[in-house]
Amino acid sequence: MIRPLLLLSDKLRDRLRRRRETVTFASGRRGEDLAHRFLQKKGYVVIARNFRTRTGSAEVDLIARSGDAVVFIEVKSRQSDEFGSPDRAIDQAKELRILRAASEYLRRAGLPEEAARFDIVNIVFHRKPAIEHIEDAFYFPRAV
């Protein structure tokens, strides 16, 4: 009973976003909504969405708990996989921005970097969106 209501609310929210925002931004938000629901089904507890640093220079799409780990999740979506997997758009500069945001979040929460994990959720919109979850996609750089 609840699942059809959630799907209906997602569709209505997406339709409203498409009226107010650009198609690209609305698609990105829809991807985040789908990733959020997907991760909840896998047992993750999403604790923050669109976390930004105080300066606004870096952002993490989703922050979740999975067991003892704090998981920082980047959601990438595309309309098709014609040009490859969506995660190919994450370059080194984007990775560094995610690491900066994660570092600030951990510092504010008083958590060690060892508690962090970085995942990517790829979403390709077809008739039925295809969702791929990549765990441990990258790591904090370790001092040698």
Explain how this protein is built:
With 144 residues, the chain is α+β, with helices and mostly antiparallel strands. It has one domain: 3-Layer(aba) Sandwich (Trna Endonuclease, Chain: A, domain 1). The protein is built from three helices and five strands. The chain has helices spanning 2-20, 23-41, 92-109; strands at 45-52, 59-66, 69-78, 116-124, 130-138. The chain has a five-stranded mixed β-sheet, sandwiched between helices. Strand 4 and strand 5 form a beta hairpin. Helix 1 packs antiparallel against helix 2 (23-41). The longest helix has 19 residues, at 2-20. The termini are far apart.
Number of domains: 1
**Which band does the percent of strand residues land in?**
25-35%
- Mean pLDDT, as a whole number? 86
Provide the gyration radius in Å. 16 Å
How many β strands by DSSP? 5
Determine and state the CATH class. Answer: Alpha Beta
